[in-house]
UniProtKB/TrEMBL annotation:
It comes from Actinomycetospora succinea. Signal peptide: none annotated. Residues 1-60 form the HTH lysR-type domain. This is LysR family transcriptional regulator. GO terms for molecular function: DNA binding; DNA-binding transcription factor activity.
Length: 293
C-alpha cells in the first residue's frame, strides 16, 4: 500500500502525545479530520494500530512498528529534501511567504515594506493560507516561510520562532456587550448579531473547526474580506466581532473582552521550509522586527 506523508506525521504525533486530540493539534488538524485519517490508515494497513481508552491511546505492536518506521522515513525525507533543495531553487525565484488572515492584516505588510525596499533584487509572493495548509506546504517544499498560529493546547514555541500574541477577543461599539467584562464565550457572543470574515477565510475556518458541530449557529449581519472592515462594522454597532486583539486600535475606545475558549489564546509563530535561497533569512528577520515593533 502507499502511505500519505501527512498520515505518517499524524500517526507519529498521536503515538508521541498519547492522544489523537493532541496529535491533531500538533499538526493543526481538526479532531474529526485526524480521527478519519487514523481510521483510514488502520483500514489500509488491515490491522489495528491503536488501543483506545478513556485516557487516550497507546500503540499496538503493529502501531509501534509503524510509528518507528514512519519516524525513520520522515527523518530520511528531511535529509533528502535538504540535500537537493539547493539545486532545485533557481536564481531569481521569488521567496514564497504563507500566512493567515491575522498576520496578513499588519505583520506581513510591515515586514514586506522594509524587506522589498532593502532588497530590490529579491521578489516575494505572499499567499493567505490556514496554518495546517502552511505546515504541509512548507514540509512539501512549496513555500519558503510561513506564519502559523499555535494556541494554548500546543507546545510553547521557542523564543526564536515566536512572533507576537494573536489571542482572539470579542469587539463591539463603545459601551457594547463586551464592555466591563473580562471574557465572553462564543455562545454568549452569538446571542447578538455578529460580523466577520468570509467563510473561506483562514480565521473563519479556524473558528468553525475549533467550535465544533454543537456550537450555536450565529446570525452574521455582514461578511468582509479583511479584518479592518470587520472591526469598522463592529465599531459602528452592526454586530459583535471575534478578531485578534492586535488588529483593534486601543485609541478607538471600543468595547473589548477576551474570547473565553482555550483555543483563543494564540501566538503567531515563524516556520521555515526546506529550501534555502536568497532573501529567506533576511525576510525572516524583517518579520521578527515587524512583530517586535
Amino acid at each position: 500500500m502507499r502511505y500519505d506523508l501527512l498520515d505518517l506525521r499524524l500517526f507519529r504525533a498521536v503515538v508521541t502525545e498519547g492522544s489523537i486530540t493532541a496529535g491533531a493539534a500538533r499538526l493543526h488538524l481538526s479532531l474529526p479530520s485526524a480521527s478519519a485519517r487514523v481510521r483510514a490508515l488502520e483500514h489500509h494497513a488491515g490491522v489495528e494500530l491503536l488501543v483506545r481508552g478513556r485516557r487516550g491511546v497507546r500503540p499496538t505492536p503493529a502501531g509501534s512498528a509503524l510509528a518507528r518506521h514512519a519516524g525513520e522515513v520522515l527523518d530520511d525525507l528531511g535529509r533528502l529534501e535538504g540535500a537537493v533543495a539547493g539545486y532545485r531553487r533557481p536564481a531569481g525565484t521569488p521567496v514564497t511567504l504563507l500566512a493567515g488572515s491575522s498576520a496578513m492584516r499588519r505583520l506581513v505588510p510591515r515586514a514586506l515594506v522594509g524587506f522589498l525596499v532593502a532588497h530590490p533584487d529579491v521578489d516575494v509572493v505572499t499567499r493567505e493560507r490556514r496554518s495546517a495548509d502552511t505546515v504541509r506546504m512548507l514540509a512539501d517544499g512549496e513555500a519558503d516561510l510561513g506564519v502559523v498560529v499555535v494556541d494554548a493546547r500546543d507546545d510553547p514555541p521557542s523564543a526564536a520562532d515566536r512572533l507576537t500574541d494573536d489571542s482572539l477577543v470579542v469587539v463591539g461599539p463603545p459601551g457594547g456587550a463586551p464592555a466591563g467584562r473580562e471574557a465572553m464565550t462564543f455562545a454568549e457572543a452569538a446571542e447578538h448579531p455578529l460580523v466577520g470574515l468570509e467563510p473561506d477565510a483562514p480565521l473563519a475556518q479556524t473558528l468553525e473547526a475549533n467550535l465544533g458541530e454543537h456550537a450555536p449557529v450565529p446570525r452574521y449581519r455582514g461578511r468582509a474580506v479583511d479584518l479592518g472592515t470587520v472591526v469598522d462594522l463592529a465599531a459602528a454597532g452592526v454586530g459583535l466581532a471575534v478578531v485578534p486583539r492586535h488588529v483593534v486600535d486601543p485609541d478607538r475606545g471600543l468595547a473589548v473582552c477576551e474570547l473565553a475558549e482555550p483555543f483563543a489564546r494564540r501566538t503567531l509563530v515563524l516556520r521555515r521550509g526546506a529550501r534555502p535561497g536568497p532573501g529567506v533569512d533576511e525576510l525572516a528577520e524583517h518579520l521578527r522586527h515587524a512583530a517586535s515593533a
